[in-house]
Amino acid sequence: xxSDVCSSDLVQGAPTAPAASAxxxxxxxxxxxxxxxRQGRRDDPAMNRWREDRLGAIFHxxxxxxxxxxxxxxxxxxxxxxxxxxxxxxxxxYDALMKRFDPAKDSPARWVAIAKEMGARYVILTAKHHDGFxxxxxxxxxxxxxxxxxxxxxxGQFVQAAKDAGxxxxxxxxxxxxxxxxxxxIGRAHV
Length: 191
Prior knowledge:
Layout (H helix, E strand, L loop, with lengths): L6 H5 L33 H9 L2 E4 L4 H4 L2 E2 L2 E2 L7 H4 L4 H5 L11 H11 L4 E7 L25 H12 L2 E6 L11 H4 L3
Parallel strand pairs: 1-4, 4-5
Antiparallel strand pairs: 2-3
Helix pairs in contact: 6-7
């Protein structure tokens, strides 16, 4: 029906809606295994393993780690991973941190060893945070570890070190991406 029909015409009984057509064929549903829509206590093997593990360690590491919580010689309030937004760092200035991203080559193995020594049974690594920087060489972007002096697959090293230590691994991957050109403009106002 046309958009020039106003609601008063409908109330007066003027134009009527066309007869309903056949409903569209529903798309196949993917069963939900995890997520907020699930009701009640999860009792699946993955959740039970996590409960049994009890203690874990998260390594929130990325390009923001180079800034170490300060920008322009001033300490920035808030979490270090939000320094780009908290200090209103221009894209070009933040991206320049890539030239300085060069952690020690044994960092992933040392982090895992520290976690194991403290009794952790699982480890979490921030593979990609909201800034969009990938800690592995990505085929989808140059905004990754391969474009830094470090060059190596930090995620792969971390996962291998955890496996060698007998620890479970969880990778944190943010679907937000402040660096992507399609990031919403409203988000860029804060970046």
